[in-house]
Description:
This protein is of the alpha+beta class and 133 residues long. It has helices at residues 12-19, 67-80, 85-90, 93-99, 109-131, and strands spanning 32-37, 44-52, 55-64. The protein has five helices and three strands, in the order H-E-E-E-H-H-H-H. A hairpin with a 2-residue loop joins strand 2 (44-52) and strand 3 (55-64).
Amino acid sequence: MAESLSPEVYSAVLIDHFQSPRNAGAMVDADAEAFVTNPVCGDSLRLFLKIEGGRIARASFLSSGCPASIATSSAATELLAGRDLASAEALTRDDYAAAVGGLPTAKVHCSVLAAAAVHQAIEAWRARTSAHA
C-alpha cells in the first residue's frame, strides 16, 4: 500500500519537495559522492557534491524510499549549495528535518541519512584531495 501524503502527517514543504524534487539526478562532474542506506527500512541516498574553493557549488541526489526520504534529500541539496565544508558538516539531522517543515517521529531516520551522506562525501573528498596533494 502506498504511503499517504496527508497534510495531517506531512508539511506542505515536504509534500512539495517530494512532488517536485530539486536537484534530482546523478552529477557526472561531481567531486564527491556518498551512498548511505538505512538497513531497517531500506531507504537509500546517493549524494553528489561539486566542490569549488572549499565550498559546495552544487549538490544533487538519487534516492529511493518513502516520500519523507526523497523530500529530505531534495531539501538537503538546497541547504548545502553555497556552504563552506565546515558549515555543511555542522548541519544536523534536525536542520534537515526543519528544512522540510519537520518530520513525524517515525521518519526522523530520513534526516539521519542526509547528515550521514554529507559527512561521508566530504570525508571521502578530503581523503582523496590530501592523497593527491
